[in-house]
Amino acid sequence: MFSRILYLVGRIVITAYVRLMLKMDVRWHEKMPDGPVLYAANHPSTTDPIFIHTLTRKPMSIMIHNRVFTIPFLGAYMKKMGHVRVIPGQGEQVLEEARRTLASGRSVVIFPEGLISPVDGFHEPRSGVARLALQCKVPVVPLGIYLPEKNCKRVSATFEGEPDLITWYLHGPYAITVGKALRFFGDANDKPLVKTIAENVMGHIRALVSESRQRVIA
Q1: Where do the structural domains in the chain lie, given as residue ranges?
Q2: What is the distance between the alpha carbons of residues 157 and 88, in angstroms, rounded to a whole number?
Q3: Which of 44, 125, 173, 199 is most solvent-facing, going by the fewest CB within 10 Å?
Q4: What gap in Å lies between CA 101 and CA 107, rounded to an integer?
Q5: CATH code of the region 2-217
Q6: pLDDT tens across 42-92, in order?
Q7: At residue 18, does pLDDT exceed 80?
Q8: Cβ partners under 8 Å of residue 182, min gap 6
Q9: How does DSSP classify residue 55?
């Protein structure tokens, strides 16, 4: 009960910030299917996992790099909210936690690129999105996020002795296009199939980013 209340309070705070500071523009291609889904999005800024919470009132777990969980207070909050800690070198354990989350009936957000998207395009997708879709038999809902690069603020930081670059997006237009649910079937151990599905999902994300970009430019 406490976790649900804490999640609700956090979402209220995020929604208030978005309304005050962002020009949020969300478009849906279709109504979301019932039950848990695997949201798959590009990742232009460090703040994307925060703003994605405004898409739905239903609680969701976001797959976030372990570095975020090392930040005092914020890390404890993220863990309490049920977000999935992405620890480099522990891919199987990370996917297993995501599988358990989906099996419990809660949607999960994954960033297939695994990194902040480059300014001039996208990274190649990793296999996690395809493996989760095949193993959990849940629909994949692609998200295309676009924000003006000029509004990003990059800050150097150090996490556990490792240098990093945080890309904050604190104000301005922020567009999300939510695509149609995609369903995939097959063997999650079939590497060519997994690669094809991951590229398929990333292709949809790229197309949706283009839609989002066109709305902001217009």
Answers
A1: 2-217
A2: 18
A3: 199
A4: 7
A5: 3.40.1130.10
A6: 999 999 999 999 999 898 999 998 887 777 776 777 777 889 999 888 989
A7: yes
A8: 133, 139, 140, 141, 142, 200, 201, 204
A9: G
